[in-house]
Amino acid sequence: MQPLLRDGTVVTPSLIVIGDADTVIKPAATLQQAALFTDVTIAHHDGGHNVANRTTIAHMSEFLNRFVTAPTNDESV
């Protein structure tokens, strides 16, 4: 797939979580991957290869809230 992808070619909104102490996937490699997206939110945390901490969960929540719409009373929807 890599030959098909260039920077800014993936238009799906994406959340990229980077553990600054990650030894499994180095932060530089993750930033390189993030460059493929046109609508990317990057969330850093000081941990390793994990995402379950308060800061990261807050970033995830903010990202997902972009796609939540208010309920409607219109039954035709």
Report on this structure.
- The protein is an alpha+beta fold.
- The chain has one domain.
- 26% of the residues lie in helices and 16% in strands.
- The protein contains two helices and two strands.
- Strand 1, helix 1 and strand 2 form a beta-alpha-beta unit.
- The longest helix has 12 residues.
- The model has no long low-confidence stretch (mean pLDDT 82).
Keywords:
single chain; 2 helices; 77 residues; alpha+beta
| Content of β-strand | 15-25%
Strand order of the largest sheet: 1-2
Give the oligomeric state of the chains in this entry, treating copies of one chain as homo and distinct chains as hetero: single chain
The main pleated sheet reads as: 2 strands, parallel
Intertermini distance: 38 Å
Radius of gyration: 16 Å
Helix content: 25-40%
Q: Tally the helices: what do you get?
A: 2
**Helix/sheet category:** alpha+beta
Number of domains: 1
Query: Low-confidence runs (pLDDT<50, min 5 residues)?
Result: none
Mean pLDDT across all amino acids = 82
Please write out the topology.
Blueprint: E1 14-19, H1 27-34, E2 40-45, H2 54-65
Parallel strand pairs: 1-2
In a nutshell, what does this entry contain?
With 77 residues, the protein is of the alpha+beta class. The chain has helices at 27-34, 54-65, and strands at residues 14-19, 40-45.
